[in-house]
Amino acid sequence: MRPDSNQGEPIMPKKKNLNPKVQVWIDARKRHHLSHAQVQMARELGLNPKKFGKMDNRDQEPWKMPLGQYIEHLYFKHFRKEGPDVVLSIEKKARSQKEKKARKRQAKLQHRQIETTDKEQSKVSPP
Q1: The model's pTM
Q2: What's the burial of 51, exposed, middle or buried (CB within 10 Å: 0-12/13-18/19+)?
Q3: What are the C-alpha distances in Å from 33 to residues 57, 88, 108, 113?
Q4: How does pLDDT run across 37-71, given as a tens digit for each residue?
Q5: d(CA 50, CA 27)
Q6: Confidence tier at 6 by pLDDT (50, 70, 90)
Q7: Cβ-count burial of 66 within 10 angstroms (0-12 exposed, 13-18 middle, 19+ buried)?
């Protein structure tokens, strides 16, 4: 046996380096077999993904709705529409937020550089 083998442990794919809050939603989507739209609806409703196990207990409590249908039911009850207007996966949403943050950081750096050069020029040449 190779020394670097994981000796019977299941091989798990590496998780992307994401915000832990976002990663919880990704894990809940996979664990409970939810669609991207259902996850987005649950987020807009303010549901806690850590509590989905209680709600998705249809095998032992057959009177309960499946979790995906329950989220859709709550969303319709609250917003009076079938689903969100634009559906984005959590990964895409996290990526766009990261890009937006990088753009803002870059603009802030450029603005600071412009201010410092203006201040240096005003100190060097008197009016």
Answers
A1: 0.72
A2: exposed
A3: 13, 17, 41, 49
A4: 999 999 999 999 999 999 998 889 999 999 999 99
A5: 10
A6: low
A7: middle
